[in-house]
Amino acid sequence: MAEPGGLLSMGSYRVVQGRTGSPCDPTFLLNYTPCNVICSIIFWNRFEYSDENFLTLAKYVDNNGKIVSTPWIELYNAFPSLLHYLPGSHDVLFKNMTEQRKFILEKIKEHQESLDLNNPQDFIDYFLIKMEKEKHNKQSEFTMDNLITSLWDLLTAGIETTSITLRYGLLLLLKHPEVTAKVQDEINRVVGRHQSPCMQDRSRMPYTDAVIHEIQRYTDLVPNNLTHAAAQNIEFREYIIPRGTTILTSLTSILHDGKEFPNPEQFDPGHFLDKSGNFKKSDYFMAFSTGKRVCAGEGLAHMEVFLLLVSILQHFTLKPLVDPKNIDTTQLLKALGSLPHFYEVCFIPF
């Protein structure tokens, strides 16, 4: 990966540094570094934050995230054959996807022209090599269509989810300055001001770890999970779920379970702390789903959110434009995904 550890955190610092002091919408600022992390994995290169192709890609990802979180897309998913020919936001979504596909195809073509079978550099190279090895296997899953779809999934799921989590996280920290102060105190004690944070620091930062878990619990990013299907006939509480049945699981009911998380509608890092102030794991923390089909990028997301958030709070004070009491942390949109209300923030350097 091109931006691990200190380089990842310094990337976020460099992006935010250009907006210090002035009110700004952090949406795209918090898109750039996660976007470059994914690009490093699948394209083996990162983009300059002024690159027009990069900015356009980030714009499409953000726009698509907003569209799929609207009730219209839920309705479209339920009745696609009925609503497909009607005007609606799905038209914009499909147009964006077409443009993203063009971008992906250009990258694949570049990789095909420079491919070294003995020296693969990234996800595309490995996939292309596997395609070559299985080109005579008619049952192979390593096809061009699957490569394009996989790349689109990685770009979409790997960027927007992390960006929204960070955006929601900053909003919650603006709402709760006492929490922010405690996190920054812990950062000063463990990391300091002149050293980039690393993942080894997390085990020594129980309060920060608890805050990040509470951000993810409270945000409830994908309320009803993504669709799954029963691989075989299943008996569940005297009900038979036939093989192939589409299943939606309510992650909200778990993340907001009142028995596990007292006052679940309140943002409280104490949900993940024991009486001694140590980090407390919870079997109810299923922000990334659970089981064999748990989010494949869970480990990467944990790393990104920790390093980016700590890096920002290590160097900047977050200044809201309104009284924290008046900050609305409820979901603006809550359908396939959850989105926070629009807000602006000032990043004040220490």
* Main sheet overview: 2 strands, antiparallel
User: What's the rounded overall pLDDT mean?
Assistant: 88
For the secondary structure, the number of strands is 8
What is the CATH architecture assignment?
Orthogonal Bundle
Query: Structural class, from helix and strand content?
Result: mainly alpha
Low-confidence stretches: none
CATH class: Mainly Alpha
Q: Report the end-to-end length measured between terminal Cα atoms.
A: 30 Å
Question: Which homologous superfamily in CATH is the superfamily?
Answer: Cytochrome P450
How much of the sequence lies in strands comes to 5-15%
Topology as a string of helices (H) and strands (E): HHHHHHHHHHEEEEHHEEEE
Q: What's the domain count?
A: 1
Describe the structure.
With 350 residues, the protein is mainly α. The protein has one domain: Cytochrome p450 (Orthogonal Bundle), CATH 1.10.630.10. 50% of the residues lie in helices and 8% in strands. The protein has helices at residues 5-17, 29-43, 52-68, 71-78, 80-83, 89-114, 123-133, 144-175, 177-190, 206-219, 252-255, 298-315, and strands at residues 228-229, 234-236, 239-241, 246-247, 316-320, 331-334, 338-340, 345-349. A two-stranded antiparallel ribbon has the order 1-4. A two-stranded antiparallel ribbon has the order 2-3. A hairpin with a 2-residue loop joins β2 and β3 (239-241). α8 (144-175) packs across α10 and α8 (144-175) packs parallel to α12 (298-315). The radius of gyration is 21 Å and the shape is globular. It starts with a helix and ends with a strand.
